[in-house]
Amino acid sequence: MKLIYEKSTPGRRGVRLPASDVPAAGALPANLRRAAAAELPEVSELDVVRHFTNLSRLNFSVDTNFYPLGSCTMKYNAKVLENAAALFATSHPMVALLPGGEASAQGSLNLLFELEQSLAEITGMDEVTTQPLAGAHGEMTGIMLIAAYHRARGNKKKYVVVPDSSHGTNPASAAMVGYEIITIPSAPYGDMDIDLFRQAMTDEVAAVMMTCPNTVGLFNPHIAEICDIAHEHDALMYYDGANLNAILGKVRPGDVGFDVIHVNLHKTFGTPHGGGGPGAGPVGVKKALIPFLPVPRLVKGNDGSIRIDQDNPRSIGRTANFFGNFGVMAKAFAYITMLGREGLIRVSEQAVLNANYIMSQLKSHYDLPYDQTCMHECVFSASRQLKNGVHAIDIAKYLIDRGYHPPTVYFPLIVKEAIMIEPTETESKETMDEFIAVMKEAAEMAEKDPAALLAAPVTMPISRLDETKAAREQNVCCGI
Amino acid sequence: MKLIYEKSTPGRRGVRLPASDVPAAGALPANLRRAAAAELPEVSELDVVRHFTNLSRLNFSVDTNFYPLGSCTMKYNAKVLENAAALFATSHPMVALLPGGEASAQGSLNLLFELEQSLAEITGMDEVTTQPLAGAHGEMTGIMLIAAYHRARGNKKKYVVVPDSSHGTNPASAAMVGYEIITIPSAPYGDMDIDLFRQAMTDEVAAVMMTCPNTVGLFNPHIAEICDIAHEHDALMYYDGANLNAILGKVRPGDVGFDVIHVNLHKTFGTPHGGGGPGAGPVGVKKALIPFLPVPRLVKGNDGSIRIDQDNPRSIGRTANFFGNFGVMAKAFAYITMLGREGLIRVSEQAVLNANYIMSQLKSHYDLPYDQTCMHECVFSASRQLKNGVHAIDIAKYLIDRGYHPPTVYFPLIVKEAIMIEPTETESKETMDEFIAVMKEAAEMAEKDPAALLAAPVTMPISRLDETKAAREQNVCCGI
Amino acid sequence: MSQADYCPNTPAEIKEMLAAIGVASIQDLFAPITPRLRARSFDLPAGMSEFELLQRMKSLADSNAQNIIPFVGGGFYDHSIPVVVDHLSGRAEFSTAYTPYQPECSQGTLQALFEYQTAICRLTGMEVANASLYDGGTALAEAAIMALRVTGRNRLVIDGAVNPFSREIIRTYLANLDVEIVEIAPKQGLEDVARLDAALDGATAAVIVQNPNFFGSLNDFTGLAAEAHANGALLIASVYPVSLGMVKSPGEMGADIVVGDGQSLGNPLSFGGPSFGFIAASKKYIRNMPGRIVGETVDRAGRRGFVLTLQAREQHIKRHKATSNICSNQSLCALRGLIFLASLGKEGFAELARLNYDKAEFAKEALAAVRGVSVLNGRATFNEFVISVSGNAADIAARLLKDGIAVGVPLGKYYPDLDNCLVVTVTEKRTKDEILAFARKLEGAL
Amino acid sequence: MSQADYCPNTPAEIKEMLAAIGVASIQDLFAPITPRLRARSFDLPAGMSEFELLQRMKSLADSNAQNIIPFVGGGFYDHSIPVVVDHLSGRAEFSTAYTPYQPECSQGTLQALFEYQTAICRLTGMEVANASLYDGGTALAEAAIMALRVTGRNRLVIDGAVNPFSREIIRTYLANLDVEIVEIAPKQGLEDVARLDAALDGATAAVIVQNPNFFGSLNDFTGLAAEAHANGALLIASVYPVSLGMVKSPGEMGADIVVGDGQSLGNPLSFGGPSFGFIAASKKYIRNMPGRIVGETVDRAGRRGFVLTLQAREQHIKRHKATSNICSNQSLCALRGLIFLASLGKEGFAELARLNYDKAEFAKEALAAVRGVSVLNGRATFNEFVISVSGNAADIAARLLKDGIAVGVPLGKYYPDLDNCLVVTVTEKRTKDEILAFARKLEGAL
Ligand SMILES: Cc1ncc(COP(=O)(O)O)c(C=O)c1O
Ligand SMILES: Cc1ncc(COP(=O)(O)O)c(C=O)c1O
Question: What is the 3 state secondary structure string of B374-395?
Fold first, then answer.
């Protein structure tokens, strides 16, 4: 498809603005004016509508395709959540921050406050901040809180420990806060090697970052022990909540011994991914960390109204402009409200059931590095197919031809030729059975006709793309 | 794609209703109960979303494709009109009809009243009813008004006259009201043969139905004379407003001598077609017909408030449940309000310019039965292509492969192998130039590779369909 | 220029186009319009931007009374609409397409309409359905005309308990045709089945009934259908589709043609429209059906596909011999109906009916307990029923409307003998609290 | 069950699946979770249907004050949003897709982001841009970190006229790193360019400025950029994108990294988010950019296509050596920004800026005419400016807020020497009448 810039015609106009009801003011001084108007597209409203409607049609999405992308929890996001969030569209955050402004925003503030409380109950934490804007932002905020904790206690800390199966954001977030990273290899059973972990632990470790179930979809039975070991060194336990969809109502990280958690609202709590974002990464903490939470904080007064506390000298400060991605929060709040206690428990039960079902049906055709009950996702390896020259990516591309968004491939890094499948609870057995049949077909094709897999996809407007050329030429902005 | 019924699984549930807050009542008597629940689909909300989202993707539409479907005025319909109409979604029409109910609906009633006035001004009529639910419904209503007029005057009338180029709804509507039809052939210059018309006119003719510009896109220069002739026989002139997009601010049928008009809001006034409807067909009349207008009528009181007159003994009665397709009216009202006087005039000027431009560019490649300035649409014939065995329909199907919705083909019936192109004012020269190039390409293919055209379309999920089988088997309801 | 006109061509393009056409100005293109024919006036206000428009529209909408609690129906019902209905029917590919005359690039609309027809058949218990008519009232008129055509007769018997608006529409439609209409007045909110039976004769094309009727009462028309058939006449039933979640379907009663208004299936009240009319019938009458019909077929490769079929019934082929003049129908509203039905599903739709029934029964009891109020008759009803009040029902309705509650449709206007009566409607949206408040306020008003 | 949970499997299917897995119950699948690990509480209310949910949400939304007229900005601005932005960004294929890791089935998102990057480059006058960061404040912190990386230095000079929230975010981000931050306090709402110049030295990684600054004042940082470059430092500019419809772009001034918040480009206020942060830079710094970048390439048949590129900068490849930890960004908000810009277009966007400017100038005059009010300095501003009032600005703001008007952000909290001052924001949405009413009410409050 042409770029919108390539559809531009000089002088063509789109949306019109109201005529001005005030006199035109004098011009800006020449040195403050731009030399020429920015070369934005000159297109009609119809051009815009047709362009973006047709662009959208080039995407796979949850609403059009099964999207079993492991680690991403691509569940169906109820449409009603969009309607719910839209009710708050016109509320200006700065008004609430004016002197006396809280009174004008009690609806929004109550929503945030109640969401904080629900998330604290769900995760077993004492308090929650909704400010972080995504999972990784929550991680960074959490590690900053940990750093503040150690600083306040006079601890000298240098390291953050992560298992080698951890998501890339974990070490990256810790590094953003100035920590060095100690990576612990996984044991053959798929979890962090507890002996190596024990050896690595020193009093210089600030935190241990874990996700549980981990990125292989396994629930670590040693998790309580790990917490204990860490705490012996006054290292805090950080829980990456990206996989929370597996354990709602089953496990609360706070109960197990974790001190800090972030939650990816855009994974577990029913808010769509938007082609990459926005998400939201609220952070929950145990009591000892509460003093350091970012400002502004919400406080419930005796009269039941919510106050905004903008000043807390012990706080790590501000990590984002206002109250976080409020629109995302509104959807998560609505989701939790709608599903309620029983609904949320059922979410995890069905998510785990679906993943185990797929695992049970595909292990005849694909290598299963860790053959045990999985949680909300299962990780296969295409190493068997590799013998015929077929990589995980080739199977992924074939799935595109069959109308499925591929599973996550090549992550986690500890599994060779990883194929990580997360069906989520919103998919039916019927949908999964069709997917399973196609996955088996792909495995059979890998035996009989590997070339066909290497050629895939053939049904899309484009075939596989030259990534090297893209990286070499760095053409990231239209030149015309 | 599977039918939604084929995706059904016993016991699967979609949207949930609130729990009842009242006790369960006793059962209905057995003879009033249905034997078994209707076999509606048993699918999840995600199934519903995926099914209909993917179904939608099988359509061409104005928002995705140029759609130069003659006689249908497939212009871009501004999205803001949807937002505008949605503001009135919760207003119950019956409440307004209760004693004292008008006060509760002044917003809706004012909208309708102002729309009536605008349409009267646009068409040159004295009053307008918004009740008719589509163009054909407006025609029927208009002919009923004419019948009531003649009855009131004691006229004995039997016939309605239409040109052979008229839209099928014209004779069909007149027949619904009990008239016999006299069809006047077109003259070689494309308009109704005025001499034959004159001969056909008798005192038994109740009405003459015309559209002007007619379905060949030509403006009849004799139109005033035709009105005069009709009026000499106390026959009334009916104006089919489907082609109003050509003449906004240029001609008012009322000024020319027409007595009754319907307007297709879904063609000229910016409301989308919805895959076949809903539309709206308000009817405007001259003074003599006002007493017969359908009830309810809106009346503006001295205090500026709108009253609903439900009882008028001379009225033809009620032609639809309430006030017509109000949601469509709201969009048309918003469209007229937004474009205003100058905007509407520009609409017709640009519509006519665009049609003439396409005509000028394609007459080298296609036969043009009436080679003269056209109005908002132009009609070609594929008779040149027919020499190579290529029909209008084959060219139409090839256009699908090239991403264009075909023009109207085989209408009007008076043109052999008709290809009727109406670009509308909302398309740019750029879009038309691309379309023109493809049309020329099709003409060249008709010479060089006719078989390719006969095979088209080849890029859609299905090829040409067996219409005979459909008509023979009459499988109009899923049997499973 | 701050007015939106959606005409994209630039002055430069317009110049190029005029040159290509070979005229000097746009005005030249309007040369066929001689001065005598030119518009004598075009007095409309100036336009505005979309932002100003929305403000204008908002202020109009705001001048409607907000928050009136409607216990009224009369053909349109205040039902819940799952939000997916808006989201999905709002897909531009559905809403900005035309009638699916070119099936290869219209399978979305065509398959959806086929599924819609199927849903209507299954709800009504009939064999065939079309792709929609305008609304319930006009659908009933079309059904009457269809029966006249099928039987070749010209007499109709209509139950007076059919919605008065629908009866008025039938009369309007048939006013200029040579048809005898016999209307059998109901007795105290009950159709007079004996007199309906008696009115049937060998010249009768059809008997027309409604279930639940305008008073909300339910009937089993099985006997009447048999009687009609014995006379060579058809039974036409108008039904309220939500009731079909629990009420005996017209198909089970032996109806020949079934119609109704689809507003209650996922279409907003929207001050009375758009909704859609549905029509279903026995398969043997399919060639006499009005409107578009979608049929299943195969493509050249044998793949299933859908097309508009039996078009020889329609005006664009048959012109004045068509089964109806209808062209545009209410396709998008029918799609909304289908999405509504699919999203509730088999069990959900039955639950919906049950909720309506339970709430109405609760309201019936609550209102019957009010001094001065009695429920008109003991017949089973669905979600509407008639109460009589001590006083003029219209006055009371007007008074309570000012108080924010639309208590029902006063019957005196349509049935002068019932001028102390109201038809009260209770949908699933009415809460227990609202119902009790209604009872309290009514008590206060009597 | 009236609670929605979106879990479709039926009891029969669940049984089949358990059998296929080889376990007796779902609880068996949770066996790895030993009793010690089990949740000790999960005390949440029962769920509800979507219909009840919407009522609950509506009542929450209604408990926000309605109709406050905002003359405040501070990073978020009350701009008009063409309705096409909602309609198009709401397309499910955009909103329910993930990050476009599989380019063949994600070209919609990828091409849109490439077009977005282009728009940001063109607005800012820079060579490269990424596919979005979280918001304007965090984008500025990322830019600071990027400059530290590019230069290998550890000193930042920050203009105190940069939005205080942004400065706070930078401090928070850098609190645990060994970086010296030098903040140059502004003088009466004007950045102190001389002291900024003077603060630059050979250890400085970057000087950070904002245009228009927090007081709304416009500056030409061309000289400061040259000075920075002379010291081997970068100039980082934070900009308000709407101003770029008329104001000199940072590219024209010689900036090296440019960031800003995209809320004002088609994203609703939504109580502060989601919006998006943008970042653009000179091409030579592209490998040090944070976040995702979309690049153009070709497929096997040579057809143009788009992919995520230079991923070796990112955390999922480089882990702790990545240029940033960012993973999810604000893609859909960036798409809204693109649609907003495309629908207004080149001329429309310039008009938008002009309208903001004109209205603010009008308001400046109207307020300056109020006794007890003066405009703080004579510098050119865009759509915000500072007034001083006779009295405590915070008290006056609180009083007028009760009266339905948010008169501006009192400065005392952020600049104690300016506690009789307010920053007043006037966007194109504020009408002449609103501005005059503001002036009148302010007069009354002094
Ligand atoms: C395990 C895990 N941790 C952290 C993240 C980062 O979350 P976000 O993308 O919201 O920053 C992800 C997201 O992909 C993840 O899967
Ligand atoms: C010339 C003409 N007249 C009448 C009609 C009928 O209008 P409607 O489809 O709204 O009933 C049409 C619609 O196609 C038409 O083109």
Answer: CCCCEEEECHHHHCCCCCHHHH
